[in-house]
Amino acid sequence: MINQVRSELTRYLRTETVGGALLLIAAAIALLWVNSPWGDSYVTMTETVLAIKPLHLELTLADWTQDGLLAVFFFVAGLELKRELVVGELADRRRAALPIIAAVGGVVTPALIAAVVGYGIEGMDRGWAIPVATDIAFALAVLAMTGSRIPAGARVFLLSLAVVDDLLAIILIAVLFTAGLALLWLLAAAACFAAWALAQHRRITSPVVYVPLALVSWYALHEAGIHPTLAGVALGLLTRVRTDPGEDKAPATRWEHRFQPISAGLCVPLFALFASGVPLDGNIFGELFTNRLSLAIILGLLLGKTVGIFGISWAAIRFGVAKKPANLGYRDMFALSVLGAIGFTVSLLVAELALADVGDGSSVELAKAAVLMTSMAASLAGSALLLRRGRVHQARREARALESE
Question: How many domains does the chain have?
Answer without folding.
Answer: 1
